[in-house]
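Supplementary Methods, section 5.1.

A reviewer requested that the exact input to the structure prediction be made available. We therefore reproduce it here, unchanged from the version used in the analyses.
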Amino acid sequence: MYAVDLAFSPEFRAGEPHLLFQGAYPDPPGFDYDVTPDGKRFLMLENPEFFVPSSTLVAVTNFFDELKRRVPTGFRGQ
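The structure derived from this sequence is encoded token-by-token as follows.
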């Protein structure tokens, strides 16, 4: 995670990025981090195993047949 110092007066100026901290924080879309309401802390998922290459591949065949079997015809999710 990096930070950049900003100045807005007398004109806008952005400083050089500097490292705040680093770690095994995966970046799945929409779930990368959040900031506490007081703006003093980050909430992040930490998962070192996320970056370990997987040696397992799961292939799902006949997906739609399986879906039809599991979700009865006429099902209307509420």
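Residues 63-70 form the longest helix (8 residues). These observations are discussed further in the main text.
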